[in-house]
Amino acid sequence: MTTFDINQYRITEEPFYQAQVNEVALYEAAYAARLPVMLKGPTGCGKSRFVEHMAWKLGKPLITVACNEDMTASDLVGRYLLDANGTRWIDGPLTLAARYGAICYLDEVVEARQDTTVVIHPLTDHRRNLPLDKKGELVTAHPDFQLVISYNPGYQSLMKDLKQSTKQRFAAMEFDYASADVEAGIVEKETGVDAGLAAQLVRIAVTARNLKGHGLDEGISTRLLVYAATLIKQGIPAADACRMALVRPITDDADIRDTLDHAIDAIF
Ligand code: ADP
């Protein structure tokens, strides 16, 4: 039997995270009480980076699962596999985190079907355990285990949502794009572009975010600003980099595309 090494999930170098308000203190308090935490906010605004930073700061391993609609409870919990030596049980990421004391981060949990999501319930209340029905084992969560989920309330809410019985197991923290000067600082720090260029990129994002609900489902994320700055660092002219990284990914609508392209031309 191969032994599992949880240390591979430890984050050894500090992930840069620019705090916006008191989120570090709030999270530390929630972790100290092992409360499950929900991070809400638009895509690419820093939720995953925040969890990585906090796992590093608390010195805990972090197991991240990108959720999708085809995911089953077995993908989280584990399954029997057949190999040359017969069948053997393989723990899923949620079970590993519970058994060995990691922070388990279920990214975009709303993508998973509700019958998948309910497997987290016994881990998120006073029981803090995980029944492995197929294996006939009840895993008691390690004292360091904590469950964190991310959730983008914007675009899914019409089609998909979390059950109230799931939502009400979490303390929730709201994230959003940083204010313009803080966001420019993030782009500068992440990519090494100068402050002036970072501020120009943020101005384009602000224009696009004002179009949200008027033809755009989501604004330009901090992640895309980092991409644009990275392309510029590679030697791509700023306007081309912005079209490629900031506009083309977020819209297929010709009018919106032209509006944003003009905003770029006005800035560069
Ligand atoms: P989310 O999980 O909200 O979709 P991420 O955490 O992956 O978004 O953030 C996307 C990128 O944006 C990160 O890789 C990082 O470059 C940058 N970023 C956003 N917010 C911050 C922040 N507060 N501090 C540092 N980097 C940030």
From TrEMBL:
<keyword id="KW-0067">ATP-binding</keyword>
<keyword id="KW-0547">Nucleotide-binding</keyword>
<protein>
    <submittedName>
        <fullName>Nitric oxide reductase NorQ protein</fullName>
    </submittedName>
</protein>
<dbReference type="InterPro" id="IPR011704">
    <property type="entry name" value="ATPase_dyneun-rel_AAA"/>
</dbReference>
<dbReference type="GO" id="GO:0016887">
    <property type="term" value="F:ATP hydrolysis activity"/>
</dbReference>
<dbReference type="InterPro" id="IPR013615">
    <property type="entry name" value="CbbQ_C"/>
</dbReference>
<dbReference type="GO" id="GO:0005524">
    <property type="term" value="F:ATP binding"/>
</dbReference>
<comment type="similarity">
    <text>Belongs to the CbbQ/NirQ/NorQ/GpvN family.</text>
</comment>
<dbReference type="Pfam" id="PF08406">
    <property type="entry name" value="CbbQ_C"/>
</dbReference>
<dbReference type="InterPro" id="IPR027417">
    <property type="entry name" value="P-loop_NTPase"/>
</dbReference>
<feature type="domain" description="ATPase dynein-related AAA">
    <location>
        <begin position="36"/>
        <end position="170"/>
    </location>
</feature>
<dbReference type="InterPro" id="IPR050764">
    <property type="entry name" value="CbbQ/NirQ/NorQ/GpvN"/>
</dbReference>
<dbReference type="Pfam" id="PF07728">
    <property type="entry name" value="AAA_5"/>
</dbReference>
<feature type="domain" description="CbbQ/NirQ/NorQ C-terminal">
    <location>
        <begin position="183"/>
        <end position="266"/>
    </location>
</feature>
